[in-house]
């Protein structure tokens, strides 16, 4: 095999890998890898605050409730829960 054949084989390998990575990225962005798709997500982390190197405060939103959790190596504690506020509208700059 000469240099041109090696270059052609390398290009084919790179193109195939790029197509696989692109298909995986598109499937993930479109929610195809999650059972039920993105519409069925009921829980998300709204905000986190690092207290120190071992502890963290987290606000978790589940349906129409928000729960404040203290996460640490000694255990996890529910600090409080409340009705969730409406998310502020996302501002777009033109």
UniProtKB/TrEMBL annotation:
<dbReference type="Pfam" id="PF04347">
    <property type="entry name" value="FliO"/>
</dbReference>
<keyword id="KW-1003">Cell membrane</keyword>
<comment type="similarity">
    <text>Belongs to the FliO/MopB family.</text>
</comment>
<keyword id="KW-0975">Bacterial flagellum</keyword>
<protein>
    <recommendedName>
        <fullName>Flagellar protein</fullName>
    </recommendedName>
</protein>
<dbReference type="GO" id="GO:0005886">
    <property type="term" value="C:plasma membrane"/>
</dbReference>
<dbReference type="InterPro" id="IPR022781">
    <property type="entry name" value="Flagellar_biosynth_FliO"/>
</dbReference>
<keyword id="KW-0812">Transmembrane</keyword>
<dbReference type="GO" id="GO:0044781">
    <property type="term" value="P:bacterial-type flagellum organization"/>
</dbReference>
<keyword id="KW-1133">Transmembrane helix</keyword>
<keyword id="KW-0472">Membrane</keyword>
<dbReference type="InterPro" id="IPR052205">
    <property type="entry name" value="FliO/MopB"/>
</dbReference>
<dbReference type="GO" id="GO:0009425">
    <property type="term" value="C:bacterial-type flagellum basal body"/>
</dbReference>
